[in-house]
Amino acid sequence: MMDFENKSFKYTAVYPSIQVIKMGATTIKIHKDTKSQIDKFREYKNESYDEVLKKLIFIANNVNTELSRKTVKQIAEARERIRKGNFVTEKEAKQRLGL
Q1: For residue 87, what are the domain limits?
Q2: Which of 85, 82, 87 is nearest to 96 (CA)?
Q3: pTM (2 decimals)?
Q4: Cα dihedral sign for 59, 62, 67, 69?
């Protein structure tokens, strides 16, 4: 039997094609509303919270914050234009496009 260590996971090779994974588990305390919000990210009924949290962590670590700031700024500018009445209605857009 061979043991391999990788950060928080310990892999024990039992047979060449089968691996037993030993992982530690912990309990965390979260508010009910937080749990409800996490549940919205589940892609299927039996998806574990560990899988959901890993997915959210991956997204958080890989989001391009500069693009997000730029997008937020553009949305704010567009809302300001709309508030001032500086926009094209659907009817006007169809006329301009010849539809």
Answers
A1: 64-99
A2: 87
A3: 0.45
A4: positive
